[in-house]
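User: Show me a protein chain along with its predicted structure.
Assistant: Here is one chain, sequence first, then structure tokens.
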Amino acid sequence: MEHSIYLYKKAQYKHCIDHRIPVVLPQWLDDSLRWMEKLDSRAYQFPTPIVYNPTKPPTLFSYPTLEHLTNNIGQTLIDQIIYFGTEIHIKDDFKSRLVQSIKRAGGTVSTEYNPQVTIVILKYRSTPEAIQAFEDRKWIASLWWLTNTLAREYMLSPLSTLLDYPLPPGGIPGMEHLSISITGYKNIARDFLRRLIIHTGAVFNPLMDSNATHLICGSKKSEKYKETCHRDIKVVNHLWLEETFMLWKVLDCRNERYSYIGEDVLNQMVGRTHLLQNKLDLWMNPQTMPDYLKSKHAYEVINMDEKGSVDIVKPRKAALKAIRVLNSIVMPDANAYEKELRSAHSSSKKNADIASQRKKQKT
């Protein structure tokens, strides 16, 4: 018996553990059949399966403010030694507060990579630093994982959600031809999807202009969704985007898994797709590294966050880059989202007025 599907029977569970038989979630079998390959079972393995933790979900947080970092008090990183890779560049004042937060959480920061380091914070996978950390069996995580962890006040595997792990160095071949819009998702879920679109190598299209090819849709009530009825635009939920990134290939939009659009349900499910260890392993070997395409546009966005932390030393260049990304991506999407909210409010008010008139007519 290679694996035992967990059936919540303590005797069987103990027998398997005693005989070193991996105990996994039924989801391991389900996912293996879905993707037509035997998946690495470690993410599904008890006692701490990455893909399922009902008491400690992989909650997403926006990039924390300085006040947010100041307020964290949990001993989340107890005994952890953290090393920031050479490609991580953040503003001095923010890094100072971040280091203070790490110390309050029970961790320490090492200024150099050494055998005592337990967690390596990197921007990209497949770099020499990433490969070395992988070979040394260190935890490899992104800066967003670190800030998410401090905000959650509990530690989850960086594989628990897609952007908690360092990014690929480019986009997915084939995605560069796609122009993707978002509707029906809000707050951090929307920001997460926006970043994910860019990291796949696709073009983020906040206004769903004439170049749009896909709409990531969380609600059929939106104007963007109604507009797709008259245009050749593929409508999918966020799972298509997340699983495309996870498997590193453009998936078929016609899969019924991606066609479900439920009201007020999908937004809270964003970010729950986990990474697969066997897929990540491929990036750590030059012989097996997946194909990817470089994107200047994606590079600019990846290296900028709302705090102005950019991968450029010269202040003027950093400021110009931040302004360019703000003007071309962040503000147009914010305006599009505000338009969605106004449209939804107007529609709700109109429906309420109609219902009120009908009630008066009956009386």
